[in-house]
Amino acid sequence: MGNREMEELIPLVNRLQDAFSALGQSCLLELPQIAVVGGQSAGKSSVLENFVGRDFLPRGSGIVTRRPLVLQLVTSKAEYAEFLHCKGKKFTDFDEVRHEIEAETDRVTGMNKGISSIPINLRVYSPHVLNLTLIDLPGITKVPVGDQPADIEHQIRDMIMQFITRENCLVLAVTPANTDLANSDALKLAKEVDPQGLRTIGVITKLDLMDEGTDARDVLENRLLPLRRGYVGVVNRSQKDIDGKKDIKSAMLAERKFFLSHPAYRHLADRMGTPHLQKVLNQQLTNHIRDTLPNFRNKLQAQLLSIEHEVEAFKNFKPEDPTRKTKALLQMVQQFAVDFEKRIEGSGDQVDTLELSGGAKINRIFHERFPFEIVKMEFNEKELRREISYAIKNIHGIRTGLFTPDMAFEAIVKKQIVKLKGPSLKSVDLVMQELINTVKKCTRKLANFPRLCEETERIVANHIREREGKTKDQVLLLIDIQVSYINTNHEDFIGFAK
C-alpha cells in the first residue's frame, strides 16, 4: 500500500462513520477508531483543543462531555467546522461550535446533566491539523450532580466500556501527572479490556503541576506500567490561562520551552508535546486501519450479502399500495413488541455481551440496588433502645409496668417499616427509567421512520409513566398493610415455633 493510499485510509473510515451515524445504526461493524478516556479533570478537553488550535469544547464543573463526540480532523487550506446533524452549514466561529455541541447535547439528554450514548459527529477542516479521528467520551465521575441518577458512575462506565471493549478500538488513556498513576481511572479501565497494553496509548498531562523535586520520567520512558505503544507527555493551559484568554499558539510555545528546559525531560523533548502526540496518533490510527482492513472488508461483504437477501423479499414492493403500508406498519410495531419482551425476559437471538440491559438491569436493581439502599438506612442501636424505653414508659403512663406492652413494640416496628418507603419508591423510579431506556433501544430499528419511532417512544413511555403512579400506590398500600397489623405471635418475634 503506497503513501497516498495510506493517507486516504482515515478519510475513508470517516465517511463510513458518517454513513453509519446517518443510518442510526452501526451495521454490526466495528470501525477502527481511537477513544479518549480520562477522569473529569484529566485534561482531555485541552488535549483535543490543542490538536485543533481552537477553543471549541464546552467547559464547566461536573460532567461536561455528556455524549460521545466523534471528532474528525481533516487537513485543509481553509479552516471551518461541520456537524453531521447540520448538513450544509459551515461554522467558522468556533464559539458557535461550542454552543452547538451544548445545544445538541441538551436536545437529546435534557438540561439535567444526563448522558446519552448517541454520538455527535463533528468534522474540523484546518491547515494546522493532521488527518485524525478521535472519540471523546464522558469523563469518569464518582458523584452524581444535579438531577443525575445515583448510578451515574455505572452509566458512564458502561458507555465507555461499550467503545473500548471493541478490538478495533485504540484507547487514548489520559492521566494527570500530579496524581498517582497506579490509581489512574483511565489506565484501570484500559487494563480491564487490554491487559497486555497492546492497544493503549498513554497521555500524561499537567507535568508542570507536579510537586517540586518530582517528575514522571520513569513513566514517560515506559519503565513504570509499560504500554506497547508507550506514553507521550503534554503540558496544557491552566484554568488561569484559559480565563486569561491565553491563545493555544502561545501555549504550544510554552509547552515546547518546558520540555527543552526541564532537566528530567530534556532528552525526551523530541518525543513529547502536542504536535508529536498528534503525529503519533495519526500514524498509529493509519497503521491500525491498515491492519484491520482485511477482516473489516470480509465482515462488510458478509453483511452486504445478508442485507441483499433481506431486500429480496421487497422486490415487488409498491410504496403507493396502502395495504402494503398498513402491513409494514403492523409488522414493525409487532417486531418492536417482540424485541421489548425479549430484552426484558432475557431471551433473544442476539445477546448483548458488552453491557447489562433490560431485564438484567432490572434484576440488578431488585437484588443489588434495593438491598444496598436498605443497608444504607441509618440504624442507631443506642437510639433505637432509647426509643423503645420511651415508648414503654409512655404507654405505662403513671403506672409501673411488669410486662413489656405490645403497643410499645408495635410503635417501634411500625416506625421502622415506614422507612422502607424511600428505598421502595426509589427502586420503582430506577425500574421505570430502565424500561424507558429499553424502549429507546428497541426503537432503533425504526430509525428509518423518524415519526413512527418518535410516536412509538412517546406512547409507550407515557404508558410506562402512567403505570409508575399506580405501581407506587401499590407499593405504599403494601407498606400500609404491613403497618396496620403487626403479628406479634410470629415465630420470628417470639423466638420459637409453637
From TrEMBL:
UniProt xrefs under SUPFAM superfamilies: P-loop containing nucleoside triphosphate hydrolases (SSF52540)
CC per GO annotation: cytoplasm; microtubule; plasma membrane; presynapse; spindle
Ranges where the Dynamin-type G domain occurs: 28-294
InterPro entries, per database record: Dynamin, Dynamin_GTPase, Dynamin_GTPase_CS, Dynamin_N, Dynamin_stalk, G_DYNAMIN_dom, P-loop_NTPase
EC number per UniProt: 3.6.5.5
Location of the protein in the cell: Cytoplasm, Cytoskeleton
GO BP: receptor internalization; synaptic vesicle budding from presynaptic endocytic zone membrane
UniProt keyword Iron present: no
EC class: hydrolase
Family: Belongs to the TRAFAC class dynamin-like GTPase superfamily. Dynamin/Fzo/YdjA family.
PANTHER family with a match to the protein in the record: DYNAMIN, DYNAMIN-3
Stated name of the protein: Dynamin
Organism whose genome encodes this protein: Phyllostomus discolor
